[in-house]
Design a protein that fits this description.
Blueprint: H1 5-11, E1 23-25, H2 26-36, H3 38-51, E2 56-58, E3 64-69, E4 75-78, E5 81-83, H4 89-104, H5 108-111, H6 115-123, E6 131-133, H7 134-155, H8 157-168, H9 183-202, H10 206-216
Helix pairs in contact: 2-6, 2-9, 3-4, 3-9, 4-7, 7-8, 7-9, 7-10
C-alpha cells in the first residue's frame, strides 16, 4: 500500500528514523543517484571544453592570406585571436551543492535538508521498498564527497592554495598556476559517472561493495540485510 504523504515527509527514505542503525529504501537511493547524475555529466563536458578544446577565440571577421606557406606547403593565414578565459562560478556552486548532498545523506538529521532525498522519497512511494543499511551507503557517499572535493580544488586552485599557505605559514602551493594535473579530475569525473550509472541503472553500489570487502577483513561491521528484510505479510510458500 502506498505510503501517505505525511509519512513520507516524516520518514523520508528511512524505514524508521529512530532506529539505532537506520535502513534506507534502496529504490529511493537509486532514484536520487539518477537525479544527481547530471552534475558529473556537466563537469565532464566542462573539463572536455577547457582541457581539450582550442584555447584560442577568434575576435575578428577578416582572415588575411599572408601569401606564405609552411614547410608542409599549407597556406598561412593571419587572423586576430585572443586566449580563452574560463569562469568556473557555476561549476563551483554545482560542486558545492553536490558536496552538500553527499554529506547530507550520511545522517538522519541532515537528510531532511536535502531536496533530492525528499523528491526521491516521493517518487519511490508507489514501489515496494528494499531496505538497505545506511552504513555502507555512508561509506560510498564519503568516497563521492572526496571526488567532489578534488574537482573543487581543480576549479579553484588559488583558493585552496591560499588556505594551505595560511595554515602552513609559508608558500607550499603556488597561487598563480594550477598545480593539479588535468588528468586527475578528468579521470575522477568518469569514475563518478560510472559509479552513479551503476547505482541508477543496475542498482550496483561500488562503495557498498568496497565497504563489504573491508567488513570481511574486520575493519568495518556489516549489517545482516537478509535479517532486516523479512516480509511478514506475505503468505508462506509451499515446498
Amino acid at each position: 500500500m502506498p505510503t501517505s504523504w505525511f509519512a513520507t515527509c516524516k520518514n523520508l527514505w528511512f524505514r524508521d528514523p529512530s532506529e539505532t542503525a537506520p535502513y534506507l529504501n534502496d529504490t529511493a537511493v537509486r532514484i536520487r543517484a539518477g537525479l544527481l547524475l547530471f552534475i558529473p555529466l556537466f563537469m565532464g563536458w566542462t573539463l572536455y571544453d577547457s582541457i581539450y578544446s582550442s584555447p584560442w577565440l577568434a575576435t575578428g571577421e577578416l582572415i588575411q592570406d599572408t601569401l606564405e606557406t609552411d614547410f608542409d606547403g599549407r597556406i598561412i593565414y593571419q587572423v586576430e585571436v585572443v586566449r580563452r578565459t574560463y569562469d568556473y562560478t557555476l561549476q563551483t556552486w554545482l560542486l558545492l551543492y553536490a558536496l552538500f548532498e553527499m554529506l547530507a545523506g550520511m545522517f538522519v538529521l541532515t537528510s531532511r535538508f536535502s531536496p533530492t532525498i525528499l523528491i526521491s522519497s516521493f517518487l519511490a512511494r508507489g514501489k515496494r521498498p528494499l531496505w538497505k543499511p545506511l552504513l555502507p551507503k555512508r561509506f560510498a557517499w564519503a568516497i563521492g564527497a572526496s571526488l567532489v572535493a578534488t574537482c573543487l580544488i581543480f576549479f579553484n586552485p588559488e583558493v585552496f592554495a591560499g588556505w594551505v599557505n595560511v595554515v602552513m605559514g609559508e608558500e607550499w602551493l603556488p597561487t598563480t598556476e594550477n598545480y593539479m594535473p588535468s588528468w586527475i579530475p578528468t579521470t575522477l569525473v568518469w569514475v563518478c559517472i560510472g559509479f552513479m550509472w551503476l547505482e541508477t541503472v543496475l542498482g550496483f553500489c561500488v562503495g557498498c561493495q568496497v565497504h563489504a570487502l573491508l567488513a570481511k577483513v574486520g575493519i568495518f561491521e556489516e549489517e545482516c540485510e537478509a535479517c532486516n528484510n523479512l516480509d511478514w505479510d506475505s503468505p508462506p510458500r509451499k515446498p
